[in-house]
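Hey,
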Amino acid sequence: MGPSIPHRFEMFHVSLILFLASLAWLTCFTFQQAPPALLNAGFVIASTLLLHGFLLHLHWAFIVNPEPTFGKLAIVLKVVGSLLFFLRPLTLLANGNPWTWSDLAGISCLHVG
């Protein structure tokens, strides 16, 4: 077998979590005609998976395999963006009036990072 890859399980874990988050987002956007409660639950699940994956990546960048400053800044922006994705479904569940600006801010943070 080839040379040993350090931290192979952690890399696989992050990749799997982010893959599942992508599938959850794809499912939510594919079924836009679903009942709002089900759609919001899907977005919360997708946001949770995305946040989990980026927090693991943040841990990796600061602790396991330290990256340069701009790499750390990019990952912090991705964590902030994934936190902003929580605001729309949670405000919709709380008062029925979603904060749609948080989606734009979240996707902007993700793409800048």
